[in-house]
Amino acid sequence: MDFFEDVGPLLSMQLGGQALEGLFQVFNSYVNMLIKALPESMEEEESFEDSGNKIVRMAETEAQQIALLANASLLADELLPRAAMKLSSLNQDPYKDDNRRRTSERQNRHPEQREWRRRLVGSVDRLKDTF
């Protein structure tokens, strides 16, 4: 979580939404890698191995496949939303004295965070659909 302490300057430049978008893109890439590790994508296995992508091995057992889904679900349901809350709290510090502005910022941010979370869940759903 040290990363989130380092993004304070980005937030002060109003780049919090772009930081969330970057987190989503990284998570989506992670889910794509997990999908390629499932046996259901065997038709892609040859191209997967030829690509030199040795980061993820094929999840051959049911326990390994469930672990992939559990990891992605935990990230989307718990860890990444906590990170987003941390980003939000870092963003609120400059406005401690201005309650009106802080309330307005928070209200504008909630729809953005709900949409972001919906997109995270959509990525996990793509992984579930591959099972």
UniProtKB/TrEMBL annotation:
Residues 88-114 are annotated as: Disordered. Keywords: Transport. GO terms for biological process: exocytosis; Golgi to plasma membrane transport; intracellular protein localization. Signal peptide: none annotated. It comes from the Eukaryota. One of its GO terms (cellular component) is exocyst. Residues 94-114 have a biased composition (Basic and acidic residues). This is Exocyst complex component EXO84B-like. It comes from Trifolium medium.
